[in-house]
Design brief:
The protein is α/β, with parallel strands linked by helices. The chain has helices spanning 3-17, 21-27, 39-49, 60-74, 86-89, 157-165, and strands spanning 53-56, 80-82, 99-101, 110-114, 117-119, 124-128, 143-149, 153-154, 175-178, 183-184, 192-193, 200-206. Strands 1-12-7-4-2-3 form a six-stranded parallel β-sheet, with helices on both faces. A four-stranded mixed β-sheet has the order 8-5-6-9. β2 (80-82), α5 (86-89) and β3 (99-101) form a beta-alpha-beta unit. It is elongated.
């Protein structure tokens, strides 16, 4: 073995021997803003700033009534795609067979799904890919209804990632953070809603 190659391998072995210190540095806590006192209140404020509608509902029946009122306001009388999530399946749609528990299709104008969490720091909804929360529902329909229990609101983005790492099933394949309706200003610097996602986001804040 040449002397030059030996020097290169020696440097690699030295670097590898110190690699165990890297995770300790990564785990060192950085200063974080204190939003733990009223995360739900801050979430509502930030979500509304991002032009999402936040409706506090006191029951699942109230959630259904709110959804139906909005659908009537916009003149949407077709079927509504519903994520096969326990929160959505548990909605009381008595006499309203419009909720179809299936993934969204391109022709669907509205869908109902449930968020894994909300982030108070940004007012963002957190949607995880999986059988109970198909990713396609987050982007196809113009009208996006999302159920979010207050207990699922975390203060900061760092809290979200810590919570996800503790999940028994592990990290999902895809994590979508949705902050208000989709928008772009690529064309003549004019804001256009619904460019690559929903035009209208309505968050139904459940008591638990």
């Amino acid at each position: 073995m040449s002397a030059a190659r030996e020097r290169i391998l020696a440097r690699l072995r030295s670097a590898a021997s110190g690699a165990d210190a890297i995770p300790d540095l990564a785990r060192r806590a950085s200063p974080l803003p204190d939003w733990v006192r009223d995360p739900a209140g801050r979430f509502v404020d930030r979500a509304r700033t991002a032009q999402a509608e936040v409706m506090a509902v006191d029951s699942r029946a109230h959630a259904v009534a709110t959804i139906l009122d909005t659908l009537e306001q916009v003149g949407c009388d077709g079927p509504v795609a519903g994520a096969p999530h326990p929160l959505v399946e548990g909605l009381l749609w008595t006499g309203q067979p419009r909720l179809a528990l299936r993934n969204a299709e391109p022709e669907d104008a509205a869908c109902v799904t449930a968020a894994y969490a909300g982030i108070a720091e940004t007012g963002s909804l957190v949607l995880l890919s999986g059988p109970q929360s198909p990713t396609r529902m987050n982007f196809l329909p113009d009208l996006f209804f999302c159920l979010l229990p207050r207990s699922r609101i975390v203060p900061r983005q760092e809290d979200l990632w810590q919570q996800l790492r503790r999940e028994p099933r592990g990290m999902p394949r895809c994590v979508n953070l949705i902050t208000g309706p989709s928008r772009t200003a690529d064309v003549e610097q004019t804001i256009q809603l619904g460019a690559h996602g929903p035009r209208r986001v309505q968050i139904l804040l459940l008591p638990e």
